[in-house]
């Protein structure tokens, strides 16, 4: 019998009208989804889309960006709507809004209120295997120390290095953080978009690293400089940390580039569903 570990997968999607009609065609419920909260969208859009996706039967994890939440009253209202839709897990992050919309300026503050108002939610927080372009290591460590005890899991920022992720898990463990880690990897996306978004989101260091390693090799082997295929990176990460008890699975940043997802999901080293439905979906479901 193979001792090869299997992984779970979760897709990160951006809320949009097309998503709700197109996603079910290629990724079947009850797969897991993580729904972004971008500054120019605002949290109400994330909440509304998450509720619709949950109603379609997905395990849905809305992002709540602290700096985009206007007030405690707004937070209570969002939590009530999400709970009523059967949603039980959130991802809390500071968010990229330059000026906070209300009194929440970082995710620890938001986490405290979520736990005070609706302790039944489990909460994921962000992790940075390669640091953050603006926040220093001391800031990140302080923030993690403050949040870890209230959190149930971590999602890592997009990263192209299996070594960096493996080292990060070791650092977490040595600092006593034992949260299950969803490892954030890019999905199949055009190189142009990846570079543009990466620079804006602050994953420049990772991208620079990737040019010399996994990214460049993957592109070269495929003879395809237009699209990035993260299967190789995923395999490398899986080989390195697939057996680690802290490894929760892959969090795939899809950027809603759905048409290339089937090929990627089909080749992931993921947990297969126990019983295949009559018209099998891609096996990348939990
Ligand atoms: N990893 C991801 O998926 C996402 C990451 N982000 C980025 O991550 C940053 C940090 O988010 P968390 O890990 O939740 O950090 P956090 O909320 O735990 O904050 C860590 C420290 O950085 C400070 N800080 C956070 N955002 C700041 C900002 N925009 N300007 C000035 N100081 C700030 C906080 O006051 C705190 O001292 C966001 O601001 C954003 O750049 C945003 C959305 C998603
Ligand atoms: N700093 C930071 N902020 C984030 O929001 C973020 C991260 N990092 N790291 C990982 C993921 C990736 N995220 C993103 C960011 C942008 C798009 C995106 O598609 N942006 C489009 C606009 C989409 C729209 O308006 O509907 C763009 O062209 O900017 C998707 C996911 C969210 N997450």
From TrEMBL:
Transmembrane segments: none annotated. GO terms for biological process: methionine biosynthetic process; tetrahydrofolate interconversion. This is Methylenetetrahydrofolate reductase. Belongs to the methylenetetrahydrofolate reductase family. It catalyses: (6S)-5-methyl-5,6,7,8-tetrahydrofolate + NAD(+) = (6R)-5,10-methylene-5,6,7,8-tetrahydrofolate + NADH + H(+). GO terms for cellular component: cytosol. Keywords: FAD, Flavoprotein, Oxidoreductase. InterPro entries: FAD-linked_oxidoreductase-like, Mehydrof_redctse-like. It comes from Arthrobacter cavernae. Its cofactor is FAD. One of its GO terms (molecular function) is FAD binding. Pathway: One-carbon metabolism; tetrahydrofolate interconversion.
């Amino acid at each position: 019998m193979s001792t090869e570990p299997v992984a779970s997968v979760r897709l990160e999607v951006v809320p949009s009208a097309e998503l709700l009609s197109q996603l079910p065609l290629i990724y079947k419920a009850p797969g897991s989804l993580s729904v972004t909260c971008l500054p120019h969208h605002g949290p109400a859009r994330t909440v509304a889309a998450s509720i619709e996706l949950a109603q379609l039967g997905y395990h849905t994890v809305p992002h709540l960006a602290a700096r985009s939440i206007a007030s405690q009253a707004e937070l209570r209202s969002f939590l009530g709507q999400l709970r009523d839709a059967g949603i039980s897990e959130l991802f809390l992050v500071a968010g990229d809004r330059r000026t906070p919309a209300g009194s929440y300026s970082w995710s620890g503050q938001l986490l405290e209120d979520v736990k005070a108002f609706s302790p039944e939610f489990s909460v994921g927080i962000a992790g940075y295997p390669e640091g953050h372009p603006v926040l220093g290591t001391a800031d990140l460590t302080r923030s993690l120390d403050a949040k870890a005890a209230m959190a149930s899991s971590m999602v890592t920022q997009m990263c192209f290095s299996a070594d960096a992720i493996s080292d990060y898990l070791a650092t977490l463990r040595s600092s006593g953080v034992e949260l299950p880690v969803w490892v954030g990897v890019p999905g199949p996306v055009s190189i142009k978009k990846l570079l543009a978004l990466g620079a804006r989101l602050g994953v420049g260091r990772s991208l620079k690293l990737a040019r010399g390693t996994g990214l460049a090799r993957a592109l070269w082997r495929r003879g395809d400089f237009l699209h990035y295929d993260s299967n190789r990176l995923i395999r490398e990460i899986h080989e390195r940390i697939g057996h680690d008890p802290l490894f929760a699975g892959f969090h795939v940043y899809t950027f809603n580039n759905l048409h290339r997802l089937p090929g990627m999901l089909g080749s992931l080293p993921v947990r297969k569903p126990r019983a295949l439905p009559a018209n099998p979906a891609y096996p990348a479901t939990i």
